TrEMBL record, chains A, B:
Organism for this UniProt entry: Absidia glauca (Pin mould)
Keywords carried by this UniProt record: Amino-acid biosynthesis, NADP, Oxidoreductase, Proline biosynthesis
InterPro entries: Ald_DH/histidinol_DH, Ald_DH_C, Ald_DH_N, Aldehyde_DH_dom, G-glutamylP_reductase_CS, Glu-5-SA_DH, GPR_dom
Catalytic activities: L-glutamate 5-semialdehyde + phosphate + NADP(+) = L-glutamyl 5-phosphate + NADPH + H(+)
Pathway the protein contributes to: Amino-acid biosynthesis; L-proline biosynthesis; L-glutamate 5-semialdehyde from L-glutamate: step 2/2
Gene: ABSGL_14829.1 scaffold 14966
Enzyme Commission no: 1.2.1.41
GO annotation, biological process: L-proline biosynthetic process
Domain Aldehyde dehydrogenase: 3-288
Protein name: glutamate-5-semialdehyde dehydrogenase
Similarity annotation: Belongs to the gamma-glutamyl phosphate reductase family.
A GO term for molecular function: NADP binding
């Protein structure tokens, strides 16, 4: 089948999905869970094949041990976690069919704005095969068709999972209109480059993976891309900060999970904190947590004096303040005040999540109002920027976009709206100066007819 | 000044705009209105210069009469309309600082989602110089900085209007932090191509103008584009339609303002309507309104038999169903049923606005659920797709995008949100299995502290 045909099928599936009920979507999700459980052996066999091939790559030094680990879905309770993830998504509220505006334009003309699925999603991800199940379920729950492309290390597992999901959809009762083409998988880079051109059929691309993957996609399509390339988060220690909060948050933000996009990469320090042992305490705690500090001249001079025995202090270069280390490394810079901190963040950050540590409410408000990031935090670790921690139940990813959806994105990020007008033969020519006038009265929810 | 510096200034202005109050924004808007009125003579002189040059172009046949007319802001009450437009925008509610989600993540950790300006807008438009004032005011009211680029025919007028707006902003009292760089203007195509590359500084592009302008921009930037290239709207006459509503709506949708993007370009006709004089009546009304009907074989055969004297009937080609005529021409096609009508629209339409004429509620629902367009109308003319008719007070444009904002876009389309977390030293490492649990309780509006 040609890629164009596959994309067209996805578009047609998305039209069918526009009219399904929440019950029908849940029926499909629970059927997927059931068939996944039934076909566990097939899935494990496919996973074994991928792991065998990957093992050779690890031996040749061509694949990292951590990537290999992420490939494995047979280990421990991993498979059960995948199944319970399906249940979790099933139990979330339906994000579609919500009326977000209702206006009586005239006595016999009602206008409603109602949430609808975006349409066709293209998701591209690396390594972890459970994303096939997770994203398929999020797409279905929000009424979207999805085309998946996984990493080549997981080819057999991804194909088997997609195959099982399609079989589950195909086995739905006839009363359920969700077609199996609601979930499709492609395997090659050429397929992706063809799909990135098909903005007629594909409405949104959701890349999950490395900076280079996301940048490649952003640079090669007119289709809106939901996601983030970089996660350069900062923690700013204000002169009015509490040293115990500062220490706890700096260490958590950097070391709780350094490979995550919401880990801190830059520590900004108010110059006054060099007059006491405030900054030294924070630095010592980071060093104790095995973090290397890449310091500007002022902070380096201070720390080399205060902590002369440490071998975790290095001079920084400008590039460090634009770098997502994803490791036990943090760039440190002394700033004159909160205003310089905000300026640094707006210039160097990736609009992901930034935190201020202060007991001064006015300073916090200054920071949180002016920092242009999806998340602006006060006395809180940047690591909270996550759909589960925000209470969304499930997350599509974290977006650093300035439009549509920003920050951790749950099901709400996969819907848009349409306007529905219910008239009685109303024509524009009847309204205007000396003619009929518009009412523009709000319609109360109890009077909705939609 | 380099374009990069100009874009950087816009970004800095947008940071200042993040913290302004509605009162400060209104103060700026009313000051703009006042200075525009004071400098009316300068503005008219600049407009005269443009008109003189344009007149020569008209004589040489290089500029159309209608474009010339749109250039003129001295004529009749045009200038007063521009001034009252500023007042209208001033009186609209502030779209920013609205809390759209509030969650108690833990007893001492509150999370708010709050609307904020998108940031820096780039708007590109043709001919009508009043767009300078309109878009500047919409941008300021929503807290955005804006960079404007108008058509070259209005160079002097656009520059003068932008200059007057900057002078008005520069004359604000010191207590008002809106800088004059909140509104800037550029003049050349080279400036635009440089700006389309500066996604670091520019957050959204709003092109208003021809199909080719919009397509050029969509194809040449990574920055999100808000707008529409085509307006291919359809009216579908169902077998259960009311002939009087069908006639009124078909004529209004086609002829009320044929150059508008919400004018109908395609008329779809249920085959059963050829068994009575239903379709003939609608066609006759269109012909009486000077509309040429480009008909498929079935409709042409029918009409040539019913209306043999008409010279407004022509055979159609496939391309006609993809064409935005913007004239007294409509493409006509007979379909088997509502399902074929929906399929035709989803394949040929531009996701703008489509209308069904029927007395059958189930058929209407089928159509309005499955047609993938920003506006799905029942017994209503497509011409209602307009920000003023929707009651938005002012409109940025009409979007056929599938993300962010769709349909007529008012001030709400110029805002996004950020998450603000208010903690007490909270760290992610404290939560999890066997540790602290998240509350995820909603916060009541009376308990908001934001």
């Amino acid at each position: 089948m040609s890629i164009e045909q596959l994309a067209r099928d996805a578009r047609l599936a998305s039209v069918s999905l526009q009219s399904v009920t929440n019950e029908q979507k849940n029926e499909a999700l629970l059927r997927i869970k059931q068939v996944l459980a039934e076909r566990k052996d097939d899935i494990f066999k496919a996973n074994e094949k991928d792991k065998q091939l990957a093992e050779e790559q690890v031996k040749l030094g061509k694949l990292s041990g951590s990537l290999f680990k992420r490939l494995d879905i047979c280990n421990g309770d991993k498979f059960d976690t995948i199944l319970s993830g399906v249940s979790d998504i099933t139990s979330l509220p339906d994000p579609t069919k919500k009326v977000t505006m209702a206006t009586k334009v005239d006595t016999d003309l009602s206008l409603y704005r109602i949430t609808v699925p975006v349409g066709v999603l293209l998701t591209i991800f690396e390594a972890r095969p459970e994303v096939v199940v997770n994203i398929s379920c999020l797409a279905l729950k929000s009424g979207n068709a999805v085309i998946l492309k996984g990493g080549k290390e997981a080819t057999f597992t991804n194909a088997m999972l997609a195959n099982v999901i399609q079989d589950a959809l195909a086995s739905l009762p006839e009363s359920n209109p969700i077609p199996k083409t609601a979930v499709q998988i492609v395997e090659t880079r050429e397929d992706i480059s063809a799909l990135l051109d098909l903005d007629r059929y594909v409405d949104m691309v959701v890349p999950r993976g490395s900076n280079s993957l996301v940048k490649y996609i952003q640079n090669n399509t007119r289709i809106p891309v939901l996601g983030h390339a970089d996660g350069i988060c900062s923690v700013y220690l204000d002169k009015d900060g509490d040293v115990s909060k500062a220490t706890r948050i700096a260490v958590d933000a950097k070391t709780n999970y350094p490979a995550a996009c919401n880990a801190a990469e830059t520590l900004l320090v108010h110059q006054d904190l060099l007059k006491s042992d405030f900054f030294t305490q924070v630095a010592q705690a980071l060093i104790d947590a095995q973090v290397t500090l890449k310091c500007d001249a002022a902070s380096l001079a201070h720390l080399q004096k205060q902590l002369p025995a440490s071998n975790k202090l290095e001079p920084s270069v400008e590039e460090d303040y634009h770098t997502e280390f994803l490791d036990h490394i943090i760039a440190v810079k002394v700033v004159a005040d909160v205003s310089e901190a905000v300026e640094h963040i707006n210039d160097h950050g990736s609009k992901h999540t930034d935190s201020i540590i202060t007991e001064n409410a006015a300073t916090a408000d200054y920071f949180m109002t002016r920092v242009d990031a999806a998340g602006c935090y006060w006395n809180t670790s940047t690591r909270f920027a996550d759909g589960f921690r925000y209470g969304f139940g499930a997350e599509v990813g974290v977006s650093t976009n300035k439009t549509h959806a920003r920050g951790p994105v749950g099901l709400e990020g996969l819907v848009i709206y349409k306007y529905r007008a219910y008239g009685n033969g109303n024509i524009a020519g009847d309204y205007g100066t000396g003619k009929k006038q518009f009412l523009h009265d709000p319609i109360a929810p109890s009077d909705y007819h939609v």
